[in-house]
Fold DUF3147 family protein.
Amino acid sequence: MFFVLKMIVSAFVIAIVTEISRRLPTYGGIIAALPLVSLLSLFWLSIQGESETNMNQFTLGVLIGLPATGFLLLIVYFLTKHSVPFIVSLCAGMVAWAVFIYVQDLLNRMFT
């Protein structure tokens, strides 16, 4: 039952953001740039009684993923700005994200 509640609340937040984005794209983008998924995840983890260690590891994972996510968004932005179809732009962004994460992991292993 708790899982269903999490889904409903999370879906509601996403629905609100997409409605704002539809009407006011710039403000919707600013709101979407907020770490909504991360905050919701931390909230649910806290409610479920996860350990501080797990929550810290989750937060570190989010921080590690931020540069790759920024790169994904940059790719999508530039490709769509240059009239590349959205689905192609999105796929290219996701591939770039995966490559970025892979390279980041390799560099992390090399220097730690």
The CA atoms of residues 15 and 21 lie 10 Å apart. The chain has five helices and no strands. The chain has two domains: 1-50, 65-112.
